[in-house]
Amino acid sequence: MGFFDKIKKIGIFSGFSKLDDEFYEELEESLILADVGVETTMEAVEELKKRTKAAGIKDTEGGRSCMKEVLADLLSVRNTGLALGTKPSVCLFIGVNGVGKTTTIGKLGHALKGEGKKVLLCAADTFRAAASEQLSIWAERGGLEIIKQGEGADPAAVVFDAASAAKARGTDVILVDTAGRLHNKQNLMNELNKISRVIDRELPDSDRETLLVLDATTGQNGLIQAKQFLETAGITGIVLTKLDGTAKGGIVVAIARELGLPVKYVGLGEGIEDLRPFDAKAYVEALI
To answer: How far is it, in rounded angstroms, from Cα 126 to Cα 131?
Structure first.
């Protein structure tokens, strides 16, 4: 099961011998408990019934292989890689406090540096006490450059400084940390729009990713968060953290199906190496 060995395996394929009504009811319950979500679960089970009937499959072993294909298809939404082809490119990280944004930035910065890229961290979360200090620690751990200002500074001004520094230093990728919680959706929208305008003006031709960081252990609450952020920001993908400590990894399928967003990275621990590109095939193998 590789990196996904903590995901709760759906063992009913070995617990039943044939694909009957009882099996399908148990499968629905298992998928919902794994946080695949009711809507996506019903769609997946109906698709499984259709495919097994068309192929004349009646045993659960054949059903297991078919279910893997169904889930893999549900996960196939857009490219899971990062579009960072320009120099510099910008990667903006958004999400509520406590999901692991700053940690994810540190880990991704380390990984990109390992690929030979020159990375600049931008501490644009100026609202949370010690946020820039936390990012500075990750910069030090990864041997990365960082641009920051004092607590309470204008986040867009920090992004302006980072854009200027990136152009001067020949930076490949700017990773931007943003505030996790603002007073309401309007404030969030205003702040992100202001940051976007600075990037548009200073780096008009740059590739840009806007990654929403979600905590896998929150299950369906993570899906609700994603829907709210999707209304206020042009999200290009998801980073799912703390997948090592949850039995509810089915949230990945729900996010892909209900929001049309690809999961691009998963966090699997506290170490600097514990951020991996999302592998749909390994994920489905682990879940089923």
So the answer is: 7
